[in-house]
Amino acid sequence: MVLDYIIKGLLFILILGSIVLVHEGGHMLVAKKNGIAVKEFALGFGPRIVYREFNGTIYSLRLLPFGGACIFRGMDGEDSISPEVFGSAGVFARIATVVAGPFANFGLAFFLACFIIAAIGYDPAQIAGVLEGYPAAEAGLQKGDIIRKLDGHRIVVYRDISSYTFFFEGKSTDVEYERDGQICHTVISPKYSERDNRYLFGISGSMGRKKATPLQVFRYAAHEVYYWIDISYKSLGMIFQGRVTKDDVAGPVGIASAVGDTYDMAKEDGAYYVWLNMLNLTVLISANIGVMNLLPFPALDGGRLFFLLLEAVRRKRIDPEKEAMVHFAGVMVLLAFMIFVMFNDISKIFR
Question: Do 216 and 304 reside in the same domain of the chain?
Answer without folding.
Answer: yes
